Amino acid sequence: MNVLDVPRSTLCEAFNLVIAQWPAEVRPGAKSFHINGGCNMREYNEVRSGIEDWATTSHFTGMLDDIIGSVEHYVSATIHDALKNLTILRPSDLDFEAFASRFDSHPNYRVISG
To answer: Residue 104 and residue 111: Cα distance in Å, rounded?
Structure first.
């Protein structure tokens, strides 16, 4: 399996592009918790669907195009996890360093300085 070295600056650019697609405040809406620990959130799902479409249909230059889908997924998963215990979240409050650490755990990517 090939591992793509992702410069921290490129990851930060992708992170900011994805965060900019989210509304200033995200609400989960009605929550349905599942036995396995999952949670369905209607309002979150509606917003996320449009952002997922944006990520899959947009075209970026260079490495951004290679990572934008995974960055969108990781940002969305981070927001989803937080909303399990919150009634509102501001995506602008997400910590890039924590995100970069989580992204670096992906088996196909390695975050490097630069």
So the answer is: 5
